[in-house]
Amino acid sequence: MVRTEIDLRRPGRLGDRLVVEGWLDRLERVRFWCAFRIVRSADEALIVECRQMLAMIEMPTSRLLHLPEDWDKYRVPKD
């Protein structure tokens, strides 16, 4: 994990049933972004929006790896 951004939109409460949606948002040569939303199912209120930048690293050398080209098929285009 390289970076995490979290935007808290509304408070959640103990006992809330939440729906977590996640998708592959953006691809670069050696890193990628995953995005997430957390919604309260009772009223569909947006609780949290989040993005994470990640990179694949070869261990034990800690060398950055290029992302596989076929990963683009998993990306969800922005609206």
Model description:
With 79 residues, the protein is mostly beta strands. The chain has strands at 3-8, 18-27, 31-40, 45-55, 57-58, 63-64. A hairpin with a 4-residue loop joins strand 5 and strand 6 (63-64). The relative contact order is 0.30. Strands 1-4-3-2 form a four-stranded antiparallel beta sheet, with no helix packed on it. It is built from no helices and six strands.
Topology:
Blueprint: E1 3-8, E2 18-27, E3 31-40, E4 45-55, E5 57-58, E6 63-64
Antiparallel strand pairs: 1-4, 2-3, 3-4, 5-6
Tell me, what's the shape? elongated
Major β-sheet annotation? 4 strands, antiparallel
Total strands: the figure is: 6
Task: Report the structural category.
Answer: mainly beta
| Relative helix content | under 10%
Mean pLDDT: 91
Biggest β-sheet: strands ordered side by side in the sheet: 1-4-3-2
Provide the gyration radius in Å. Answer: 16 Å
Cα distance, first to last residue?
Answer: 25 Å
Number of helices: 0
% residues in beta strands: over 45%
Which oligomeric state applies?
A: single chain
List low-confidence stretches.
none
Order of helices and strands: EEEEEE
Keywords:
two-stranded antiparallel sheet, 79 residues, elongated, single chain, mainly beta, four-stranded antiparallel sheet
Short description:
This protein is an all-beta fold. The protein is built from no helices and 6 strands.
